[in-house]
């Protein structure tokens, strides 16, 4: 398929492959992170270099972390995962994820988040998964709430984005 699905079409989970990040993925992930919609919902700065992305991937060697990509028709259309905390916070992890601009609202994020939570619950025995999300990112907030996350507080002036400071919610999900 050469073009992304139509505006409202959902992508069948059987057409997606979710797998671990590979070192060879660095250029596609750098291109993904450069997209304006993807970047808008993250703390990433514009124009990440492929070399920086390669180094980031290579640093994700801990078995305490999970780094995944979503592949659709041979193209990486999303990535995400978690980093487990250490010591007295080893029961918790910080989640992050992002979806290609052309594939948002089509179920890709739902499939990725469910897979991340399966890893957290069934393989890493995490009690708590945390995240931050900009308060104006209604689709992401709705996705997280559908998957058991609750807002625990608000970080005022959390990040600088497009010339202004924006707030973010602290959200968490306790293992059911």
UniProtKB/TrEMBL annotation:
Pfam families (alphabetical): Acetyltransf_1
Domain N-acetyltransferase stretches: 16-176
Coiled-coil regions listed in the entry: none
Highest taxon in the source lineage: Bacteria
Name of the protein described by the UniProt record: GNAT family N-acetyltransferase
Signal peptide boundaries: none
The organism of origin for this protein: Microvirga terricola
